[in-house]
């Protein structure tokens, strides 16, 4: 805006002139007022000037007529008022020109301020009426009818009029000068305005351009602000992340310093331990030698243990006999069957059983007989399976040491043989077979730490009417019974095998249990087909255990035979079958059973005699029955044999119980030599 000139600035010359004019007017005003009034200050209208001049030439005081100035037709001076400021508009300028400015030709004749006084008479003579001449005439000669006072008064007024005329001329000259000055100023102002308009239009164009630029800048600014806000948000996120990272870093630094101090501590410990390591190494070598020595010692202890265990078993007798009386079962209780009179004296060692029976004499008197029996252990009606196995477990352990072991269950039908050997499904009711199998697998696992590894094989057969059936065969029991099975002995290894019999390699006790249940289901099928065949047959479950010691190279071969014998009742007791066909079959069965059981007794008796005579070549009739021939190596002096005599609690079975007790006593009194370990 500095380029815009100030509207009120004007060239110095005209301004100075105008100022001079104003100053002159300011100086002239009091004089003019004073000149127009009387000496005592009264206004001129109170004077009788017009009245006085009515009679003379008409010369009125000049009255301002705006449109008559400068047109040359009116010579009256302009009123004694200050000239107006010229307007800036062209209309105003034109009016100013038309009223107060002289004609355009006037500037050529316009005198300067200094020449005004010298040229005034000439100007008056050309453009104004000859006022001065008539005035002089009045001054020089007043009317003759006036008094002296009035004449003097007239002269004074005339003088005043003259003075006023003179002043009027001066004022007109000043007005003219002012008009010229105003005209110049107006032209200059117009030029300035045009220049200003041009400048304004240029400035407006600039302004529009600047506004456009401003809008663009504002848009840029808005975008930049948006960017800035986004950057601020990002910055805030980064700041919070940074503060979290800083916190984590502080924690990590603390951990690092802790770890470094620990590392320093460990390094010092390691250096300490390194120095003691050589000492420890020396100790370790010594301890290793000590360990070898201890291991050898342990193996020696194991050998001693086995020897001592065997000695204990020998002291107990190679054929041992337990007697067990079963409790009454539900149907017997319901039928209120009478119990036999059995007592168990000697509660400390549990080895005795006393049966009392009453018979009527020929004279009709009642005769009471008591029968005392003594065995290795006697178990009364309340005994449990685990109590029986506590005595049997040592035998099961012997077979892993390389001995042949044979456990018989002997007794009449229904006396509890199967219950004792196989037991019931509940864990507490499990019999000797599952418990012995468990023990064998446990022992082989424990002996593995002493260098022993074992191969265990199993077979399960049945002897019915002197023929062998395979209870583990995949074919049905009838076709299996038709297959001929021969018994073979190997005198070198003292092992027995049966031709055509299924032999399973066993790896766990659970596998054995599934085999036993398979065999039982086959026996039940056979029982349906063949009339209580299970009670009339011998079943033999055999585990063969072959051990090898990887450290000592020692080998051992043992076997465990678990035998559930057929019912031992006599012919008279089993003759209750009415049908001829069934009776013949039962007679045949009974004969077969009695033959095998009496053969068993004969073998045991012969073994006893052999032991007593000291003749190793004495004959033992093993071949008299399939059962004794099969169990040859388990009954000989090289084996350990246990007979569990099962007894019925019923009074009705007392006679059979006494027969069984007498047979068991015979066995119990037999010494069959010293068991021999089958090792190489
Ligand atoms: N100690 C016992 N506790 C409970 N019940 C028993 C016991 N002993 C045998 N029993 C039950 O007596 C009944 C006959 O037992 P078991 O079948 O074992 O006799 P067994 O001598 O094997 O007969 P068989 O010669 O006919 O096979 C079965 O019902 C059996 O559950």
Describe this structure in words.
The structure is a single chain. The protein has 680 residues and is an alpha/beta fold. It has two domains: 12-206, no CATH class; 317-327 and 373-648 and 662-668, Kinesin (3-Layer(aba) Sandwich). Helix content is 53%, strand content 14%. The protein contains 17 helices and 14 strands. It has helices spanning 12-36, 49-53, 90-99, 106-109, 116-127, 131-140, 148-316, 330-334, 385-400, 417-421, 432-447, 477-482, 509-530, 580-613, 626-630, 632-635, 654-668; strands spanning 319-325, 341-343, 352-360, 366-374, 377-379, 404-410, 452-464, 467-470, 487-490, 495-498, 504-506, 538-549, 555-564, 639-647. Helix 1 packs across helix 7 (148-316) and helix 3 packs antiparallel against helix 7 (148-316). The longest helix is centred in the middle third of the chain and has 169 residues, at 148-316. It is rod-shaped and about 235 Å long. The protein binds adenosine-5'-triphosphate.
């Amino acid at each position: 805006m500095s380029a815009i000139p100030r509207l009120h600035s004007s060239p110095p010359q005209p301004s100075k002139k105008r100022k001079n004019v104003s100053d002159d007017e300011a100086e002239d005003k009091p004089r003019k007022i004073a000149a127009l009034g009387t000496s005592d200050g009264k206004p001129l209208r109170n004077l009788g000037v017009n009245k006085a001049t009515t009679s003379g030439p008409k010369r009125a005081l000049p009255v301002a007529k705006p449109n008559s100035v400068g047109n040359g037709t009116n010579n009256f001076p302009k009123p004694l008022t200050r000239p107006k400021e010229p307007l800036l508009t062209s209309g105003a300028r034109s009016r100013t020109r038309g009223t107060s400015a002289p004609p355009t030709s006037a500037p050529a004749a316009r005198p300067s301020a200094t020449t005004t006084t010298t040229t005034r008479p000439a100007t008056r003579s050309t453009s104004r009426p000859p006022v001065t001449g008539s005035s002089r005439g009045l001054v020089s000669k007043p009317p003759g009818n006036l008094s002296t006072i009035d004449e003097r008064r007239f002269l004074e007024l005339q003088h005043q009029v003259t003075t006023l005329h003179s002043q009027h001329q001066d004022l007109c000259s000043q007005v003219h000068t002012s008009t010229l000055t105003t005209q110049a100023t107006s032209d200059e102002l117009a030029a300035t305005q045009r220049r200003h308009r041009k400048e304004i239009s240029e400035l407006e164009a600039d302004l529009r351009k600047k506004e456009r630029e401003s809008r663009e800048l504002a848009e840029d600014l808005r975008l930049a602000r948006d960017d800035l806000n986004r950057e601020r948000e990002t910055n805030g996120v980064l700041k919070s992340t940074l503060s979290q990272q800083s916190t984590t870093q502080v924690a990590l630094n603390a951990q690092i310093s802790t770890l470094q101090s620990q590392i320093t501590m460990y390094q010092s410990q390691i250096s300490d331990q390194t120095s003691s390591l050589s000492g420890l190494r020396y100790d370790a070598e010594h301890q290793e030698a000590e360990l070898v020595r201890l291991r050898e010692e342990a193996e020696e202890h194991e050998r001693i243990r086995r020897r001592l265990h065997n000695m204990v078993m020998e002291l107990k007798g190679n054929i041992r006999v337990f007697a067990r009386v079963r409790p009454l079962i539900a149907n017997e209780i319901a039928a209120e069957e009478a119990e036999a009179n059995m007592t168990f004296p000697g509660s400390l060692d549990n080895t005795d059983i006393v049966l009392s029976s009453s018979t009527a004499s020929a004279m009709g008197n009642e005769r009471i007989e008591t029968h005392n029996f003594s065995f290795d252990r006697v178990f009364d009606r309340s005994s449990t399976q685990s109590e029986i196995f506590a005595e049997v477990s040592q035998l099961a352990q012997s077979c892993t040491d390389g001995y042949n072991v044979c456990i018989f269950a002997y007794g009449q039908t229904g006396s509890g043989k199967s219950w004792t050997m196989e037991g019931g499904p509940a864990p507490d009711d499990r019999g000797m077979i599952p418990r012995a199998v468990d023990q064998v697998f446990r022992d082989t696992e424990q002996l593995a730490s002493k260098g022993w590894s074992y191969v265990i094989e199993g077979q399960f057969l049945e002897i019915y009417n002197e023929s062998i059936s395979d209870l583990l065969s995949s074919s049905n029991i009838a076709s299996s019974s038709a297959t001929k099975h021969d018994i073979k002995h190997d005198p070198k290894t003292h092992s027995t095998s049966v031709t055509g019999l299924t032999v399973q390699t066993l790896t766990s006790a659970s596998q054995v249990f599934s085999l036993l249940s398979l065999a039982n289901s086959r026996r039940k099928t056979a029982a349906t087909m063949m009339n209580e065949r299970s009670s009339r047959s011998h079943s033999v479950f055999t585990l063969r255990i072959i051990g090898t010691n990887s450290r000592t190279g020692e080998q051992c071969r043992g076997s465990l035979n678990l035998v559930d014998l057929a019912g031992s009742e006599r012919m008279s007791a089993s003759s209750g079958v009415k049908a001829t066909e069934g009776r013949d079959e039962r007679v045949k069965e009974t004969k077969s059973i009695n033959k095998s059981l009496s053969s068993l007794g004969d073998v045991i008796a012969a073994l006893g005699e052999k032991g007593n005579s000291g003749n190793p070549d004495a004959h033992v009739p093993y071949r008299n029955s399939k059962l004794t021939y099969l169990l040859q190596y388990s009954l000989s002096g090289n084996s350990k044999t246990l007979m569990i005599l099962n007894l019925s609690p019923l009074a009705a079975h007392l006679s059979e119980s006494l027969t069984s007790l007498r047979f068991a006593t015979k066995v119990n009194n037999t010494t069959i030599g010293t068991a021999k370990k089958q090792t190489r």
